[in-house]
Amino acid sequence: MSFGRMTAIVLRQFYLMQGSLSRVLPLFAWVGIDMVLWGFISRYLNAITASGINFLPLMLGAVLLWDFCSRVMQGVTMAFFEDVWSRNFLNFFATPLCISEYIGGLVLSSMATSAVGLAVMLVLATAVFGLSFLTYGVLLFPFLLILFLFGIALGVMGSALVLRFGPATEWFIWPIPALLSPFAGVFYPLSTLPRGMRWISRALPPAYVFEGVRRVARGGSVPHLSLLAGGILAVVYVAAACWFFTRMYRHAVRSGLIARYSAESVS
């Protein structure tokens, strides 16, 4: 694998964003809206309830972490979709670029774009609502890492589905985070869910993250075993997603479906 070829994928995304407000604005606009909206909802809940529970770290922290995971996924899929929309995907593989380097480039692009979103969310949470996640220090790192890996897995898997079934299926990819959020227990403990849904939750790495975050926010210790289980699951999902993308790419090449991603196929 060549790191230079992977960074070339990132450089292409940078050139696309340069001077394009429609591509730069979504990096921070939607996460900013989410943080402000849920921040004021949390303040309102604090004002009308007498339970003594501070909803800010619980609700706003959950929104920040889940938005981060979603942005990581979208960082991968958007970089891939840019190649699909411009019919540039096939051109990459007329070069010595291999499939692992292409996936690596998508991951690096996602790291850059999701870092922007995360920085915006942290600044808003601290400046507007006085909630500093820096007080948790390195405790947050394993939670963020698991969500990052799971977001990468979702992004690569979603890209593979579009590669297999065509650009029209991209509309099935956008709702994936919303469909998974009830099972991940983003805003409530998993004990709230029916037994059948809990079985699905145990197969999702974010479920271990949010259960652990709630425990830490209540003053408890970091659940190392749960984080280890979530981390192992996340790594398995990433490996499975990369394998699936490679299989779909090879199928597209053998069947000739790869031609629909070429500008030459435009009539």
Characterize the structure shown.
There is one protein chain. By secondary structure, the chain is mainly alpha-helical. It is 71% helix and 0% strand. The chain has helices at residues 3-17, 21-24, 29-48, 55-85, 89-92, 99-127, 140-165, 176-184, 195-201, 205-217, 224-255. Helix 4 (55-85) packs antiparallel against helix 6 and helix 10 (205-217) runs antiparallel to helix 11. The longest helix has 32 residues, at 224-255. The mean pLDDT is 85.
Descriptive keywords:
11 helices; 267 residues; 71% helix; globular; mainly alpha
Give the gist of this structure.
By secondary structure, the chain is mainly alpha-helical. It is built from eleven helices and no strands. It has one domain (3-265).
Strand share of the residues? under 5%
Number of helices: 11
Q: Low-confidence parts, pLDDT < 50 over ≥5 residues?
A: none
The string of secondary-structure elements, in order, is: HHHHHHHHHHH
Q: Rounded to an integer, what's the Rg over CA atoms? A: 20 Å
As a percent range, the share of helical residues equals over 70%
- Count the strands? 0
Task: Give the rounded overall mean pLDDT.
Answer: 85
What does the overall shape look like? globular
Q: Provide the structure class.
A: mainly alpha
Largest sheet composition: none
Query: How many separate domains make up the residues?
Result: 1
Q: CA-to-CA gap between the ends?
A: 36 Å
